Amino acid sequence: MLPLLALLALPAAALENTVECPAGTHRISTDDPYAPFRCVKDDEGKKKASGFGSVTGPKGFSARPKCPHGTRQVAGDALQPYRCVRAGAAEAEPELTPLRSEEEEALPPPVEEDDPLRRGCPPGKRKVRTTDPLNPYQCVVQAARIRSTGEDSYVRFEIPRELSFEYPRTFRLQDGWREDVPSLSLSRDDGSLGKPVSITITKFESRQPTYQDLDVSMTRDIEWQKAKDGGVLTVAAIRSRVTYVPGDTRTVYVPLSNQSYFTFIYSAPAEAYEANLPAFQRLLKSLKLSRKE
User: Fold this and answer.
1) Which parts of the chain are beta strand (E)?
2) Whole-angstrom Cα distance, residue 117 to residue 259?
3) Cβ–Cβ contacts within 10 Å for residue 26, how many?
4) Using an 8 Å Cβ cutoff, are 198 and 168 in contact?
């Protein structure tokens, strides 16, 4: 029993007996209960001792860490010597370029779609939109649409006690004058798809449920259709107003009274607009109105 007690007393004795360190060194604590102190050089004494002896954290990296892919290093300040920023398109790293598989490399280059809007139409034809999703555009003959109309090609149309005018024989006339909103529609149709050349005549009166006065209708054209104000034009001895969309539509407003007016609308595709405009001008010039109000 006595030898065991003597062994247990050794650490305590070591703690009580101070150890003198050589000159130029000093004593620091350790985590060994049998050797709780050791001597170290004085320059190591500048380190802060802890419960785990002389262990301290890292001062930094031995080599500067790399920035992530897609970024690059730029100079920073004293507290942050460098930082990572996103690289521009021209500075992208090669490894970021998408790689193609062997199967994709073996494929032929893609063939561009044969779109009529890109390749254009041959002389004498024009592009029109179709209802076929597999062939949304096609080229059609445009000669009939741009053919000029001779003086002997006009006929006169009349609605008794209402109006009369001249129009080309090549136009097809549809009479809807007995409808709630009286109208006439004239169109030149050569059988091809797309927007036709047309002239529409409509009479608006305050008794109609959808009536809008002349100024409101003009404002709607300018705001909704992006039309321009064409000023004043004399039609059938009446000062009339004009709006137009260049190369597309022209509308003439002919007032009859404070609560009624006519509209004459000419519309045509861009390539046929100027060629068929004389037919619309001839209709306005030959117009005669029977005023009942």
Assistant:
1) 25-29, 37-41, 71-75, 82-86, 125-129, 137-141, 154-159, 163-168, 172-176, 183-188, 197-205, 228-235, 238-245, 249-257, 260-267, 288-289
2) 46
3) 14
4) no
Instruction: Answer whether 72's CB lies under 8 Å from 84's CB.
Output: yes
Q: What is the DSSP letter of 35?
A: S
H-state helical runs in 76-213 = 102-106, 116-119, 143-146
Q: Which pLDDT band holds residue 290 (cuts at 50, 70, 90)? A: confident
Q: What angle do CA 218, 220, 224 make, to 5 degrees?
A: 130
* pLDDT tens per residue, range 69-83: 767 777 766 566 667
Predicted pLDDT of residue 131: 58
The yes-or-no verdict on residue 257 having pLDDT over 90 is yes
Instruction: Kindly give the pairing relationship between strand 228-235 and strand 238-245.
Output: antiparallel
- 40 and 54 Cβ atoms separated by less than 8 Å: yes
User: What does the alpha-carbon distance between residue 169 and residue 161 come to, in Å, rounded to a whole number?
Assistant: 23
Contact 201, 183 (CB under 8 A): yes
Q: What is the spatial distance between Cα 288 and Cα 235, in angstroms, rounded to a whole number?
A: 9
CATH number of 148-289: 2.60.120.1690
Cα–Cα distances (Å) from 42 to 20, 78, 90, 121, 204, in that order, read 14, 31, 56, 95, 109
The helices-and-strands tally (H runs, E runs) of the chain is: 6, 16
